Amino acid sequence: MRRAAARLIGICGRLGLLSLAAATLIYACWQVAFLQLDRDHPLNLTRAEGFSAAVVDRDGAVLRAFTTPDGLWRFPVTAQQVSPLYLAMLKAYEDRRFDSHGGVDYLAAVRAFGQFLWNGEVVSGASTLTMQVARLLEQRPRTLASKLVEMFRAQQLERHLGKDRILALYLTLAPFGGNLEGVRAASLAFFGKEPKVLSPAEAALLVAIPQAPSLLRPDLNPEAARRARDKVLERVAEAGVITARELAEAKEAPVPDRRLAMPFHAPHLAEALVAAAPTQPSIATTIDGRLQAQVETLADKAARLLGEGVTYAVLVVDNATGRVVAHIGSGDYFDAGRSGMIDMTNALRSPGSALKPFIYGLAFERLIAHPDTLVADVKQRFGAYAPTNFNEKFNGEVTLTDALRRSLNIPAVMLLDRVGPLRFDQRLQDVGVTLVFDRQSAAPGLPLALGGAGITLRDLVKLYTGLARGGTPVELTWDPAQPVRAAPAAVVSDVAAWYLTTILEGAPRPVGFRLSEDTGGGNRIAFKTGTAYGYRDAWAVGWNHSYTIGVWAGRADGQPCSGCVGLMAAGPLLFQVFSLLPPEPAPSSFSAPPPGVIPGPTAALPPALRRLQQSDVAVAMAPKNPPVIAFPLDGSTLDLVQGPDGLSSLPLKVQGGLRPYTWLVNGAPLATKAWRGPVLWQPDGPGFAHLQVIDAAGHSATVDVYVTAD
C-alpha cells in the first residue's frame, strides 16, 4: 500500500514538473510573441485626443464649454477629479481586481466560463475596465476574435500606460448616451455639477449607464435607468462600499428625467480665450463662478427693465492683483435684439463725464487746484467751444468738491484748459490707455472733458483701479498664472487719488441707495457716473479698498436709448453688484491721508488755491440775442427719402446770434463752408440725433430730432 502510494506520488510529481515546465515554456513563448505583436501593432490612442474645450473658473468649475468638432461633449478626466465613492462603486461593480491584474482577469474569465457551462447562458462577464478601454479606443464587432484582440490590447495598455492613465481613459471615454462621453460630461448634463462630489444614487447611476447607454439614458428611459442604478447599489452594498441605510436612501432618490444645458457663463470671455488657444482642452481663469452667475442674473434683469435693445456690460476687478472676477459682455448673449453676442467690455464708446476725476486729479497733483478751491460755474466760451451743464443751468460759485460730486461741466472744462488737453491725453497714454479720436486731423481738445473720445470699459476700469491703489493702476487679467503687473506710470499722485476718493465717496447715490457714510466705515464706496451725448452710453464706475467695478449701459448699435443716464441706468446695477461682494475688513485705505495733503477749508488754503481763475482763452459770456435753431424744431420727426447715395439732405436753419455758426451733430462738428443760407446735413441713418449750433460769440442752441427713412 505504501509502495503504491509512493509510486502514485512520484507519478504525480513527474506530471506536475512536466506541467510546470510546459506552463513556463508556454508563458515564455507568449511573452516573445507579445513583444513582437506589441512592436508590430502599437496602441492607437487617437480616439482619446479630441476633447471639448472648457473654460473654467478659479475653482476649476466649467464656465462655458464647446463641443468637439464631431459634436461630442467629452472632457479629459482624472481619478482625482471624481468622487472617491464613484471610483469605489465602479471597481466593485465592474472590476474588483482592477488594481492587481495585468489587464485580463483570468480568475473572472474562468468563473464566467464555468457559469456559462453550468447555466447554459452568460451569467457574468469577464471584461475588465482595461479591456473596456481597449474596446472604447478601437470599435470592433462583438465576436470571439474581437475579445481576443481586446485581451491583447488590454495587456498593451497595462504595459505602456499604467493603472492611473487607464482609469483616466475610461473616465473620459465611457459612453453615456447621445453625444455624452465621459463621467464629467454626464455629471454636468444629468446633475448640473462636477463629478467631484456625488451622492450614492448619483454615483451608482453613472456606473450603470455605460452598460447600455442608449437604453439606460435617464432622460429617455428613466425607469430602466432606475432599475439599472438599483442593481448597482445592491451589488456595491454586498461588497461593503455603502451601508444598508445608504442603500435604502439611495433607492428612494429620484432619477433625473431630463438633460441639463451645459454651463454657460462668461460666454464672451470664454469665446475669446478658446479662439486664442483652440487646441487647449481646459483654460483656467480668475473668474469667481458663483459671483459671475449672480451678476449675469442682475445684468439681464436690469437690461429688460430699461427697455428693448438695451444691454449691459460689467467688470469686477480685484484691486490688489488686477484679476477680473466677473465679466459680463452683454445682458443676454442669445438676444439678437440686444446684439447680445458682442462683447461690450471691449467696445469703443463715449465716456461722457467718466474721465472728469482724472482731469481733477492732474489739477490737484500740479497744485493748480484743491478740492476746496472755488470756481465760477457760469456760461463761458473757450474759443469756439461753449459747453453747458447737463441740465443746461448754471450754479454760480461752487467748490471743486461740489462741482465733481454734481458732475458740473464748466468746472471740468476749465480744469482741462488749465491742465492742458495734450498733457492729459499723454498721461493716459503713459499708463497704457489711448483715447480714440481722429488723431490725423485733430489734436486732443477740451471736449475730452465731456466724452469727446472713445474708450473701452476695460480701459476705464483699469484707470479707476489707480484711484483705489494710491494712483497707480493695475493691468487687468483673467489668467491666474499671470503675475501682478502694475501700470508703467501713475495716472495721478497718491495725494490726488486720496482727494478724489474722499470727494466721490460723498457723491449723490441712485434712488434707494444710501451714502457711504451711512453704511459704515467698512463699506465705503466711491463712484463716478457718465452719460454720453444723445443718451447713447451710461456709465458708473465705483471702487472701495478691495474691488473696482465698472458698468456700461446702452445699445450696442449706438442708437440713443430712453433713460440711459449714468446715475439712473448704470448706478443702481453698480451698487447691486457691490452688495454681492464681501464687506470690507477695514475702513477705506484712504481714511488716513498720505503726506502732502493740504487741509481745507477754502479760507485756510494758500491764496493761489482759493479760487480757480479763468485762462486766457476762457471768456465769461452774458447772452445777447442768442441763436435759436429755426429748423428742425426740437422733438420733431423727420421723414427722409432713401436715395442711391444715402438719405436725402436736410437744411439746418438758425436765427439770431453772430456769424459764422458751427454745427455739431451728436457732438461731432459738421463740415460746412456756408456763410449765409441753410447748412445741408445728410443723416447717416434713421434714429435720434442731437443737433447743436454755436455762434461766433460762443452762444449755443440745441434740438433733438428723430429721423426716419422710407
List the helices and strands and how they pair.
Layout: H1 2-40, E1 53-56, E2 62-66, E3 73-74, H2 84-94, H3 106-119, H4 129-137, H5 144-160, H6 163-173, E4 180-181, H7 183-191, H8 200-208, H9 222-238, H10 244-252, H11 267-276, E5 282-284, H12 289-306, E6 310-318, E7 324-328, H13 356-365, E8 374-377, E9 380-382, E10 396-399, H14 400-405, H15 409-419, H16 421-430, H17 457-468, H18 494-504, E11 526-531, E12 537-543, E13 547-555, H19 566-580, H20 607-610, E14 618-620, E15 628-631, E16 637-640, E17 642-643, E18 646-647, E19 650-655, E20 662-665, E21 668-669, E22 679-681, E23 687-694, E24 700-709
Parallel strand pairs: 1-5, 3-4, 16-24
Antiparallel strand pairs: 1-2, 6-7, 6-13, 8-10, 9-14, 11-12, 12-13, 15-19, 17-18, 19-22, 20-21, 20-23, 23-24
Helix pairs in contact: 2-8, 2-9, 4-5, 4-6, 8-9, 9-10, 12-19, 13-15, 13-18
